[in-house]
């Protein structure tokens, strides 16, 4: 395993972090706990020292399962990151209550890296400022319940800059970044700005919710043939000195083995000039084919009217990737289709990608009507 500097903290973290957001499943959305625990422990045995979870992952089960995985001496071998679900907090006292609940689930007396989760303009104004959450974080640190203070982010660059400037004490931040998201959200500019201020930067969605793991054949053709699509996507990030580590939400043992191997081969400056041009071209092709930037995070479900929003978007995106047959078969099998959207906007408040879901649904319905005709 390769280790990298975690901002100014003096800590060395593994190039690969284990994201506990897409743990292996045994049934529909039911985590296969035995496999998940074994995978997390195996990652730690192989040198991974950063495990990342959050309050809402797997409907609250992720923290509990990570807590189990870190028994039998594993907690002492790794740093642990989790996130404060700021949207749940109504009054100032809720912060500590929620943190205590998380510590109990994680079966630990402290979290190493605690993040204010998925900040946007609204959450920054309505929660962070009004409920004085930075002060709460500092108090939790003074009490020994957390060690380092950070935030994860989903909004536009100007909001990112305001949050960075709001507090001098940020130790780290977590942003969405990959070879197609260069100017989306915090983007490359945000990465450089945060690193320039001495923050460690954790990268999430390095594979854009899996869309870069198995990209459309047109994108694949642009990428070289020496590495897998996953390795190309991850190497793009490891190449950059501002990246402290990247999180991968690994769902099976093979993905874990592959990522461990890739991380072991990684180093700063590993991308050649030729490969830089290749990534640029791959992004251009990807952009020309992307319909909706859904990462499959599932924050938007359940929809009160039963729409399986991430699945609908996944089939919709397949149509642009020239996988019409697969898209059509999958969409036809859905009991409730895009035209059942009642424009209630509930889902849109939860979407970290700021997708105007109710506006896209009629478009999806139209496209599938055409395909089926
Ligand atoms: S806007 Fe449409 S998809 Fe979103 S929650 Fe409402 S009905 Fe469901
Ligand atoms: S629509 Fe938004 S919230 Fe729902 S799965 Fe996609 S990215 Fe996540």
Automatic annotation (TrEMBL):
Record keywords, A-Z: Iron, Iron-sulfur, Metal-binding
SUPFAM superfamilies in alphabetical order: NAD(P)-linked oxidoreductase
Tagged with keyword Iron-sulfur: yes
CDD domains (alphabetical): AKR_Fe-S_oxidoreductase
Coiled coil: none
MF term (GO), any: metal ion binding
Residue ranges occupied by any 4Fe-4S ferredoxin-type domain in the UniProt entry: 332-360
InterPro entries noted in UniProt: 4Fe4S_Fe-S-bd, 4Fe4S_Fe_S_CS, AKR, AKR2_Oxidoreductase, NAD(P)_OxRdtase_dom_sf, NADP_OxRdtase_dom
Stretch forming the signal peptide: none
PANTHER family named among the record's database cross-references: D-THREO-ALDOSE 1-DEHYDROGENASE (PTHR43312), OXIDOREDUCTASE (PTHR43312:SF2)
Record protein name field: 4Fe-4S ferredoxin-type domain-containing protein
Source organism of the structure: Lacrimispora xylanisolvens
Lineage of origin: Bacteria, Bacillati, Bacillota, Clostridia, Lachnospirales
């Amino acid at each position: 395993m390769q280790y990298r500097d975690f901002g100014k903290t003096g800590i060395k973290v593994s190039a690969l972090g284990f994201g506990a957001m897409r743990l292996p499943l045994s049934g529909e959305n039911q985590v296969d706990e035995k496999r998940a625990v074994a995978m997390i422990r195996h990652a730690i045995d192989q040198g991974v020292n950063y495990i990342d979870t959050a309050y809402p992952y797997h409907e609250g089960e992720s923290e509990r399962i990570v807590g189990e995985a870190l028994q039998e001496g594993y907690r002492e071998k790794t740093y642990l990151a989790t996130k404060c679900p700021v949207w749940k907090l109504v009054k100032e006292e809720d912060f500590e209550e929620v943190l205590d609940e998380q510590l109990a689930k994680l079966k630990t007396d402290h979290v190493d890296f605690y993040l204010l989760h998925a900040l946007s303009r609204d959450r920054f104004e309505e929660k962070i400022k009004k409920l004085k959450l930075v002060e709460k974080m500092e108090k939790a640190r003074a009490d020994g319940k957390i060690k380092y203070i950070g935030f994860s982010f989903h909004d536009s660059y100007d909001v990112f800059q305001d949050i960075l400037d709001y507090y001098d004490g940020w130790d780290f931040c977590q942003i969405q970044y990959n070879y197609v998201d260069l100017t989306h959200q915090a983007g490359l500019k945000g990465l450089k700005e945060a690193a320039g201020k001495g923050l460690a930067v954790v990268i999430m969605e390095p594979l854009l919710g899996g869309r870069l793991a198995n990209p459309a054949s047109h994108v694949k053709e642009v990428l070289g043939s020496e590495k897998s699509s996953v390795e190309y996507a991850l190497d793009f990030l490891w190449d950059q000195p501002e990246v402290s580590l990247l999180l991968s939400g690994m769902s099976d043992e093979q993905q874990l083995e592959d990522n461990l191997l890739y991380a072991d081969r990684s180093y700063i400056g590993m991308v050649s000039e030729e490969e830089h041009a290749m990534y640029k071209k791959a992004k251009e092709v990807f952009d020309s084919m992307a319909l909706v930037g859904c990462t499959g995070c599932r924050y938007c479900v359940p929809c009160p009217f039963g729409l399986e929003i991430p699945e609908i978007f996944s089939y919709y995106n397949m149509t642009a990737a020239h996988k019409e047959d697969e898209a059509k078969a999958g969409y036809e099998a859905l009991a409730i289709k895009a035209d059942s959207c009642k424009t209630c906007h509930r889902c849109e408040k939860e979407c970290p990608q700021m997708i105007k879901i109710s506006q896209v649904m009629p478009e999806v319905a139209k496209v599938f009507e055409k395909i089926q005709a």
